[in-house]
Design a protein that fits this description.
Blueprint (H helix, E strand, L loop, with lengths): L1 H32 L2 E2 L2 E2 L13 E5 L3 H9 L1 E5 L2 H10 L4 E5 H9 L4 E3 L5 E10 L3 H16 L2 H10 L17 E6 L2 E2 L3 E3 L5 E2 L1 H13 L2 E6 L5 H6 L5 E4 L9 E3 L4 E10 L1
């Protein structure tokens, strides 16, 4: 009787078992067709042009976010780990990031890579009023000295390669006067308000180092990115710096570069 019951149970459940087997086989076939590999969506961005129209992640307030907004649908993130998690899960199609920072985050995040073709390359310069040739020359002299003594490299490594660097002001005789710098308040890591309510960032420290070299005080005013050049042109500020448009030489003079910036695209492997 027991054997007969077992045979009946097996006979009754064979269709269910067969259906389960078919579903398992079908799942194995369907996953590759739907763009998944090992539970992770496949990458669809292989060149910068492929990123156009895609959902792109970038750090909040960064220049990369400006680029992402021009290319496709921007999603803001407030930490690199959160950004990489969204990329791996398929919530975004790719991520835009400054190249040094991108190399650092990719080095400890499995399953992602940087595209060989850079997204954008540009240099960072000071903007100075065209009629103030003396100030332009002084800024260039300061930048040359800060390059020679390693200050510019040290500050870049501090902000973009997470390396320890402590800036030491030069021993110079202070002079009367000050220079006013125009910067946007929310472009991390270039210029932003820190937890103490102070202006911080790569550009802020660069400008501070230039003023230290010249022996003058640094004053800072907030300006929208689109108004940086205008603030110098109309005399609200002596200096502006950062990622400036390339067609502004008829309005202001530009210093020698104080840094070069490269933006990369991070995608799933």
């Amino acid at each position: 009787m027991k054997n007969d019951g077992f045979k009946k149970l097996w006979t009754d459940t064979r269709p269910i078992a067969a259906l389960a087997l078919l579903l398992t086989l079908a799942t194995g076939l369907i996953l590759p067709l739907t763009g998944c590999r090992g539970g992770r969506p496949l990458n669809t961005v292989n060149t910068p042009d492929d990123a156009r129209g895609q959902i792109i992640g970038a750090m909040f307030g960064s220049p990369s976010a400006r680029l992402a907004n021009e290319f496709g649908i921007l999603r803001h993130f407030f930490s690199g780990d959160e950004l990489m998690g969204a990329l791996l899960s398929g919530d975004i199609d790719c991520a835009f990031m400054e190249s040094t920072a991108a190399a650092t985050i990719v080095s400890y995040t499995s399953g992602v890579r940087i595209l060989a073709d850079p997204l954008l390359e540009y240099d960072l310069r000071f903007a100075v009023a065209r009629e103030n040739a003396e100030l332009l020359e002084a800024v260039n002299t300061a930048l040359a000295a800060l390059t020679a003594n390693g200050t510019l490299r040290g500050l870049r490594d501090k902000y973009f390669a997470a390396r320890n660097y402590a800036y030491v002001p030069p021993d110079v005789t202070p002079r009367p006067g000050s220079l006013t710098l125009a910067v946007p308040p929310n472009v991390f890591p270039y210029s932003y308000w820190d937890e103490n309510g102070d202006f911080s960032g790569f550009d802020i420290e660069i400008a501070g180092a230039v003023c230290d070299f010249l022996g003058v005080e640094l004053n800072i005013i907030e300006e929208d990115v689109a108004e940086l050049v205008t603030s110098v042109w109309y005399g609200r500020a002596d200096l502006a710096l950062g990622w400036l448009p390339g067609d502004i030489r008829d309005q202001v003079s530009l210093s020698d570069p104080y840094a070069f910036s490269y933006h990369s695209i991070i995608v799933r492997r």
